């Protein structure tokens, strides 16, 4: 299709997005390119973007369903391991979101949270997830919340019963808050030498992801702050305040 000029094709599709950012087709094509590289995270991310824009690409929903279905099937066949690498974490992450998006058994999705979050912490501590990957993870997660909310707005419970719909929202939002907790903890527990060398600091990777979640919380306030999943996070918000305080700029001695 691209005559083996995938890099050039990617450049053109990104230029198309700059010209018309509300068009979903370039995102869909970028997802296809990511799929050709076996980049599942990028594939799901671009399909989500293709659906979430104003003029979504019609085939993107079908393509996302197929990608999630494939990821869930491969995840079920994977043998359990004590310690996983980045690729296995991403597979687990995609499987979790796929289970909920495809309205599968929540009893399958819930244990994945317990497995994925500790691994996310480990990967953050070793700086194995660049900013681009963290942005994709957060975007996919927030897209799933958007998807669940859209079912609620339209009272469309064909695939989800009302109880399962609520549980899906709670489980997904809980995953969001736990991700934010991981990001904030990593941002507030850095060595002083690491913080001083801002170019090497993991803050440069983590802060964009934190910013996106904060923007989502702001866009959905005040209702989102009435949700117990968000408010019942005392340690998260304490760490968040400590993180913000650590960014305080020293303005020098006060003038008399």
Automatic annotation (TrEMBL):
<dbReference type="GO" id="GO:0070034">
    <property type="term" value="F:telomerase RNA binding"/>
</dbReference>
<dbReference type="GO" id="GO:0042162">
    <property type="term" value="F:telomeric DNA binding"/>
</dbReference>
<dbReference type="InterPro" id="IPR045153">
    <property type="entry name" value="Est1/Ebs1-like"/>
</dbReference>
<feature type="domain" description="DNA/RNA-binding">
    <location>
        <begin position="9"/>
        <end position="249"/>
    </location>
</feature>
<dbReference type="InterPro" id="IPR018834">
    <property type="entry name" value="DNA/RNA-bd_Est1-type"/>
</dbReference>
<protein>
    <submittedName>
        <fullName>SMG7, partial</fullName>
    </submittedName>
</protein>
<dbReference type="Pfam" id="PF10373">
    <property type="entry name" value="EST1_DNA_bind"/>
</dbReference>
<dbReference type="InterPro" id="IPR011990">
    <property type="entry name" value="TPR-like_helical_dom_sf"/>
</dbReference>
<dbReference type="GO" id="GO:0000184">
    <property type="term" value="P:nuclear-transcribed mRNA catabolic process, nonsense-mediated decay"/>
</dbReference>
<dbReference type="GO" id="GO:0005697">
    <property type="term" value="C:telomerase holoenzyme complex"/>
</dbReference>
């Amino acid at each position: 299709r691209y005559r083996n000029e995938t890099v050039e094709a990617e450049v053109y599709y990104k230029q198309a997005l700059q010209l018309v950012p509300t068009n979903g087709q370039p995102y869909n094509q970028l997802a296809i390119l990511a799929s050709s590289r076996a980049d599942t995270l990028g594939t799901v991310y671009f399909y989500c973007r293709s659906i979430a824009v104003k003029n979504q690409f019609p085939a993107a929903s079908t393509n996302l369903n197929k990608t999630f279905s494939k990821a869930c099937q491969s995840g079920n066949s994977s043998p359990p391991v004590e310690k996983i690498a980045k690729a296995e974490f991403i597979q687990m992450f995609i499987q979790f979101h796929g289970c909920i998006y495809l309205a599968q058994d929540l009893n399958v999705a819930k244990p994945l949270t317990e497995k994925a979050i500790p691994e996310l912490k480990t990967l953050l501590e070793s700086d194995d997830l660049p900013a681009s990957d963290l942005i994709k993870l957060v975007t996919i997660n927030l897209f799933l919340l958007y998807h669940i909310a859209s079912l609620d707005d339209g009272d469309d419970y064909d695939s989800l019963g009302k109880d399962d719909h609520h549980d899906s929202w709670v489980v997904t939002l809980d995953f969001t808050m736990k991700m934010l907790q991981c990001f904030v903890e990593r941002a507030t527990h850095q060595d002083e030498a690491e913080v001083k060398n801002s170019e090497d600091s993991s803050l440069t990777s983590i802060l964009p992801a934190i910013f996106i979640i904060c923007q989502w919380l702001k866009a959905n306030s005040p209702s989102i702050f009435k949700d117990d999943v968000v408010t019942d996070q005392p340690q998260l918000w304490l760490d968040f305040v400590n993180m913000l305080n650590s960014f305080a700029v020293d303005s020098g001695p006060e003038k008399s």
